[in-house]
Amino acid sequence: MVFESVGALLGSPWIYVVVGLSVLLDVFLPVLPSGVLVITAATAAAAGSGAATGQVPHNVPDIMVLILSAATASVLGDLVAYRLAWRGGERLDRAISRSRRLTRAQERLGEALARGGGALVVLARFAPAGRSVVSLIAGAAHRRPRDFLPWSALAGLAWAGYSAALGYYGAHWLGTTWLATGVSLLALFGAGAAAAYVMRPRPAT
């Protein structure tokens, strides 16, 4: 079973710390497997609830605490990137201006936030490196915190809830096996690919 093979980490409160740190830092290092950790821990939580096995083993993650840990860390990571970009805005602006793609992304984000349509922030949370780009651009452009942070919170909660649900219900339907984890990861990567496709730059008209 997944939670047994991962070992003692999933059976201790440190799993929330590890997940939180991974989610917080992947705004700067998108290669960190934060989604994999959330799904694996949620798979273990399904076993702990008895949803997948009919038995209730001890010392497995609590699904709601897991979601809140991941969502909170996501917002904190966004806030750190946002504030760093705010303070170093001139240098980041120069870097952005050298990339047509980043310039277009900055313009789209600015328009979306100005209209109050922060759905782009939520969508970017699922796209590979999208969270990083959005947080840094919002800070560099000195967008007001009240225009960005509520959407960041919604994005973090949506991503954490979706990732945890994949692991939890994947284990419920397929059992706490690597097959369930693999299918859940494919669904997570599929959502990321779909978000990246929707956010792709449009040809200029």
TrEMBL record:
Keywords: Cell membrane, Membrane, Transmembrane, Transmembrane helix. It is a multi-pass membrane protein. Signal peptide: none annotated. The keyword Electron transport does not apply. InterPro entries: DedA-like (IPR032818), VTT_dom (IPR032816). It is found in: Cell membrane. Residues 57-168 form the VTT domain. The chain crosses the membrane at residues 6-29, 36-57, 63-85, 148-171, 177-199. Belongs to the DedA family. This is Membrane protein. It comes from Streptomyces asoensis. The lineage of its organism: Bacteria, Bacillati, Actinomycetota, Actinomycetes, Kitasatosporales.
